[in-house]
From TrEMBL:
Cited Gene3D superfamilies: 3.30.410.40, FAD/NAD(P)-binding domain
SUPFAM superfamilies assigned: FAD-linked reductases, C-terminal domain, FAD/NAD(P)-binding domain
Domain spans labelled Glucose-methanol-choline oxidoreductase C-terminal: 46-192
GO molecular function: oxidoreductase activity, acting on CH-OH group of donors
Matches recorded under Pfam families: GMC_oxred_C
Record InterPro entries: FAD/NAD-bd_sf (IPR036188), GMC_Oxidoreductase-Related (IPR051871), GMC_OxRtase_C (IPR007867)
Superkingdom of source: Eukaryota
The protein's name in its UniProt record: Glucose-methanol-choline oxidoreductase C-terminal domain-containing protein
Amino acid sequence: MQIGQLSTIPPKDRSLEAVHKYVRNKNSLPKEVFHGGFILSKIDGPLSTGNLVLVDTDPNSNPIVTFNYFKHPQDLRRCVYGIKTIEKIISTNTFSNFTPKDGGYSMEKLLNMSVAANINLIPKHTDDSTSLEQFCRDTVVTIWHYHGGCHVGKVVDQQYKVIGASGLRVIDGSTLSRSPGTNPQATVMMMGRYSTET
């Protein structure tokens, strides 16, 4: 969790001062954030799409990335459905074994603690528990498994060789049109192993 928090600082802004500021701000988070875990609602195969634009040919320049989270209304409905499902799960007797002896926290408190955890750089609203739609918008994250920025057939061929260049392949998550349902590390490693044999 704490590493994830630090990763919300943009790479070019990661300095020793920024790390110290993060440590100071971390102390203002609800203590419960660091004494438990998170249950996430994942939207597999979102209908919303974004885009990535190179600003120049300098490999050190960051591209302009537009995620367009929840641009398609069905994605927002799926997120709300996921949060409602989580609420049902944490309300079960079985789950009560994992909550404090006083009966746990209300859903309102859990939602507001999640927003306070600052898991992304999106500006927050003061009381996200009043709207699950707003909660979804304020807490959306990619889980750091970016994909789709280097399309097979457009940027690389079927053997992952860069079209128009010799001796260069791209074998990473950017070539995936859909992210695997879990951490893509094993998938990418196998792609690398078998792609270099051709």
